[in-house]
Amino acid sequence: MNGRMLGRREFSRLCVALGLSLPVVRTMIFRPSFAQSVGTVVALGDVRRTVKFHDGIFVPALGQGSWHLAQGRHPEAAEEDALRTGLSLGMTLIDTAEMYSDGRSEELIGRVIVGQRDRVFLVSKVLPNHTAGDGIARACEGSLARLGTGYLDLYLLHWRNRDTDLSSVVAAFESLRAAGKIRAWGVSNFKVSDMEDLFRVPEGNRCATNQVGYNLNSRSIENDVLPWCEQHGMPVMA
Fold it and tell me: Is residue 151 annotated as part of the catalytic site, yes or no?
C-alpha cells in the first residue's frame, strides 16, 4: 500500500484477511492519516503494532469494538468466539462502555477475557450523567464488576453534556488512577473546543486519547480534531 489511501474494496479485503467480523474495529492513530495506520499493518502483515501514550503506556494500534454486541442480533456464543478470534489474531484491545446493551456487552467481554486478562488492553466508558458527586467512581466499580477485572487500562468520558463539570471529571479520573482502578483516562466524541476546555482545567492535559467517529465515509476530523491532537502529541482512537 505504501501510504496511499485504501479504497472501500481494499479495506473490505483487509478486514476479511484479518478476520474482522465484529461491528466495530477500533484503530489508534498517531499521525493524521488513516491509510498510514492501516496500510502499514498490511505492509508488515502484523496487527501487533502499538501506539505510545504520553505517560509511556503502549497501546495496541488495532483493536475490537463491542457496540451492538449482546443485543440478541447473534448468538452470544458466536459473538464471544468472534472476540476470542480477534484476540488470537493480535487485536488485543477491546473497547466497550457501560451503556452498550445496558452493561451486557461488558458482561460478555468479561467471559471472553477469563484467563487472559493480562494480554488484553481493556477500554470502557462512563456516561456523562454519571459524573456528578461520586458517580464516576460508582460507575467504574460497576464496569469492573461486569468485566470481572480489578482495573481498566483506559477509561473514557463517553461524551460531554452541556452541564458536564470537566474539572470534577478529571479529578475523579485522577483519583481512580491513583487508586489503581484505571491505568489511563481519556475522552470520547470531543470537538476541538471541548479539548481546549479540557486542557484549561488542572491536569486536563493528562488526557491520553480522544475516541471519535472516523472511517472512510466520515473523515471530517481530518479538518480539525486530528490536527489538534497531533499538535498536542495525543493519539486519536478511531
Answer: no
